[in-house]
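Title: Prediction job returns without error message
Component: structure pipeline
Severity: low
Priority: P3
Assignee: unassigned

Description:
Job completed but the reporter wants confirmation the result is attached to the right record. Sequence as submitted:
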Amino acid sequence: MKDGNTGIYSWVTITDVDITKALADSSEALQTANVKRRIFYGTPTPPYDKGDLWVEATYPVGTTKTDAVNNEYYSEILYCNTAKALGSSFAITDWKLSNNYTKTIGTVITDLNGYKYIKDAL
């Protein structure tokens, strides 16, 4: 803007409430997007963050049983406990068993079979 007395041009800050609000809203949306968790259905590729999930996890490919001690999983749910940046390599040790539902179901069935005598008594 040109000063009428001096003839010197200078910048004048224009405050637009709507633009200021839009910028604040977009910044908040970006922050929210940056903390969302991902769900992987195949072998994850970085980037991945702590808390991301890997469902139907089977590792190594072709595994038919779950042996978490040896990092072998079959149709499990795993969670990420070590974040990896884009360009990093996948490591199975970045993932941990989220639950033990396949073994738990097997245990329940075994327990129910143990109560067969009750069914026979009825």
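Comment from assignee: result matches the submitted record. Residues 37-121 form one domain.
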